[in-house]
Amino acid sequence: MSNRLSLSAILLFLFFSASSAQHNVRTERISGSAGDVLEDNPVGKLKVYVYELPSKYNKKLLQKDPRCLTHMFAAEIFMHRFLLSSPVRTLNPDEADWFYAPIYPTCDLTPTGLPLPFKSPRMMRSAIQLISSNWPYWNKTEGADHFFVVPHDFGACFHYQEEKAIERGILPLLQRATLVQTFGQRNHVCLDQGSITIPPFAPPQKMHAHLIPPDVPRSIFVYFRGLFYDVNNDPEGGYYARGARAAVWENFKNNPLFDISTDHPTTYYEDMQRSIFCLCPLGWAPWSPRLVEAVVFGCIPVIIADDIVLPFADAIPWEEIGVFVAEKDVPELDTILTSIPTEVILRKQRLLANPSMKQAMLFPQPAQPGDAFHQILNGLARKLPHDASVYLKAGEKVLNWTAGPVGDLKPW
Amino acid sequence: MKLLSAFRSSYLNRRGTTFRSLDPSSFDGGFIPKPSPSSIFWLAIHCLCCLISLILGFRFSHLVLFFLFSTSVTNLYTTTAGVSQLLKLKPLEKANVTAKSSRVVVGRHGIRIRPWPHPNPIEVMRAHQLLERVQKEQKSLYGVRSPRAVIAVTPTYVRTFQALHLTGVMHSLMLVPYDVVWIVVEAGGKTNETASFVGKSRLKTVHVGFDQKMPNTWEDRRRVESKMRIQGLRIVREEKLDGIVVFADDSNMHSMELFDEIQNVRWFGALSVGILAHSGNADELSSVLKMNQEGKPIQGPSCDSSGKLVGWHVFNTQPYATKTAVYVDDKAAVMPSKMEWSGFVLNSRLLWKEPVDDRPTWVKDVDNLLDGNEEIEDGPLSMVKDPSMVETLGSCGRNVLLWWLRVEARADSKFPPGWIIKSPLEITVPSKRTPWPDSSSKLPVVTKEAKYNQPATEKRSGKAKRIKEQEQ
């Protein structure tokens, strides 16, 4: 009996390994530091309770300006919608592992579409006051088992200028909470140790509408479209992108291998699919949707941003997929790129061709298995179970409710 | 004074004393120079350098000054995270160091430009090699899975237009990205002419001669060409060549997509051929075209809406009925046969002697044909028992992948052998300064000049005569 069992087990194992080997001839499985975590299913591993906040924190903002659904900070809105109908949602807060407050802090847009972060700290503060007074769960842990989505330039520092953001630091009330943000830079004030970095929102349907057949030969060596100098905010240069984009332009504008310009071509997505390398340099903030676009279109991202923390860094081995170039090495970019061995380039392309990699970078509507929503939940699940020290004794207070600039203390 | 204040203000501007500058208090207060001898001297040097830069055209003044006066310069500028030694430097400002002592400093940074910002040719070459390798990998992943060799069978013979036709076929085959075996069967025996083309191609070639000479009428030619193609197929059988057999007639033009498309054939495939029936006579052609408005100049398979092969579309030769060429150098249009060989491709394994396992039953046994016991009358379709099983290529014939054309010179036209002329060409049009001072062939030039001279003198004499008459 046991012989037969073991024999059948061996046969099953052989069958599965054979089928998986056959499937992965052309793409390579991404075995990250934590194994094949991209394909983990978070359902059953955690429970999330969604607070019922008044609509002035979410729906009314969206009604006022529906552009919030299409700009690159739309992840906060789609995460809310996903959680409302997801199987990980629980209506019983006592059994929840994580608590989510649906606030859209980045939905206050200028006429040109840029988000103004000036009121966001006050909105956050008012929401947290509401949560802590209406439900007991905030006070139990002072927010350590709560998570918030803050996709703005510098995350929960709520400012678009780096110096001001550093000055403000992370909002004091959010210091114990888990922040789900797009900004990531090592040893930076605005990145908390336990934060989860996510990719910026890029519209999946728009990208999939511009796919070209994969046998179109890749004939562009390096591709980039975007600003090199921000003449409105930094006319003298050297400030925008820490001078890295300007250095790329000055060094490689005459190089026929580099297809770089400030154009806005209609064939932007198609051209990315015809390139081997796509530059993803920092701008005013180190992250950009270019990374998402490069991954979806199979173009190897060349990341020029010192100390950047890329999305889902604990699940995706970015070192093996992209090329990292230090900002000081930008003048030698062509030497660096041409000296990469051919086998390494082919391997990177195979890893990029893996559909689970592309899926992990997208926020499709409706949600699909393996997409960015699920990766966020996986990240939250990996942080469970909560450490015992997270739970505070009754009456114990850790957060300073009056810290921060005076302007933040005004009610919203 | 004005210069000095301008100098001072320009420095202030470069320090960025706008809202973006951080921590101006960290700069030394004493950087604003008072008119001291050293600063006047420095100002003079600066002016000199400006003048030189104006002439030479790049801002080397900063670099020279930096290298010459590095000590005094450090008094003027506060440097923080390493000053770059490269050109076009803007002074680094001290920035608010973050609380966690990040390696990355916020603030204005220099724009690093290397001294020679132009491409290195070795790197460019390496990049092109990378591109090629990536494209090859793409082709192998998404293109044809396991490409088979292309076996091209070409019947030819020596004539004026042979160089034109064979060059075209040779270039097409040389561009094919798969292995190619070129079987050239030459009517009238092997000649050096053809051999030179075959040798130039740098492909694997088989060049054989065929005992008959090419006849002079199109009808007979078709028969001889069929026999020559069968000879080519015999070679495929003997050598046991493995691949896809294409009938590349020497006057046809093949597109590159043809060779990609035929990789999809399993046993016997048919594709569309564009028929270019051209005559030298333009008037005739236009009248023919007026009559023949609906027919398409294509020969190929025809499918129903579900993609199944239901029949064949042949070229409508009706309009040309009375005006077709019979002899090779007739001026009229040349008509294709009902089913041209070039519209069919077959798997070479069909021709092998040993039986291959999954040889389809709807193809006749070719041994009879190849051993010379049968005659092929109406094209390669007679090789199949069941024509409806033939595979269609090029989305069921909707893509025309090659063009059929028959163009030949007059029967008596001569051409220099190998297209190399032995003696210099004779002058037919004299240049301005005739006669050539050291020309050896004086005779033709002189006579022509004499010819030109004569009428002139005649004219002059005529005029003179007339004037004389008038005067009189």
Automatic annotation (TrEMBL), chain A:
GO terms for cellular component: Golgi membrane. Keywords: Glycosyltransferase, Golgi apparatus, Signal, Signal-anchor, Transferase, Transmembrane. InterPro entries: Exostosin (IPR004263), Exostosin_GT47 (IPR040911). GO terms for molecular function: glycosyltransferase activity. It is found in: Golgi apparatus membrane. Residues 45-340 form the Exostosin GT47 domain. It is a single-pass type II membrane protein. Residues 1-21 form the signal peptide. Pfam families: Exostosin_GT47. PANTHER family: EXOSTOSIN GT47 DOMAIN-CONTAINING PROTEIN, EXOSTOSIN HEPARAN SULFATE GLYCOSYLTRANSFERASE -RELATED. Belongs to the glycosyltransferase 47 family. This is Exostosin GT47 domain-containing protein. The lineage of its organism: Eukaryota, Viridiplantae, Streptophyta, Embryophyta, Tracheophyta.
From TrEMBL, chain B:
Residues 431-472 are annotated as: Disordered. The keyword Transmembrane helix applies. Its EC number is 2.4.-.-. It holds the Pfam family Glyco_transf_43. The chain crosses the membrane at residues 40-58, 65-87. The keyword Glycoprotein applies. SUPFAM superfamilies: Nucleotide-diphospho-sugar transferases. Its main location: Golgi. GO terms for biological process: cell wall organization; glucuronoxylan biosynthetic process. Residues 457-472 have a biased composition (Basic and acidic residues). It is found in: Golgi apparatus membrane. It is a single-pass type II membrane protein. GO terms for cellular component: Golgi membrane. Keywords: Cell wall biogenesis/degradation, Glycoprotein, Glycosyltransferase, Golgi apparatus, Membrane, Signal-anchor, Transferase, Transmembrane, Transmembrane helix. It is an enzyme of class 2 (transferase). GO terms for molecular function: galactosylgalactosylxylosylprotein 3-beta-glucuronosyltransferase activity; xylosyltransferase activity. Involved in the synthesis of glucuronoxylan hemicellulose in secondary cell walls. Belongs to the glycosyltransferase 43 family. This is Glycosyltransferases. It comes from Brassica campestris (Field mustard).
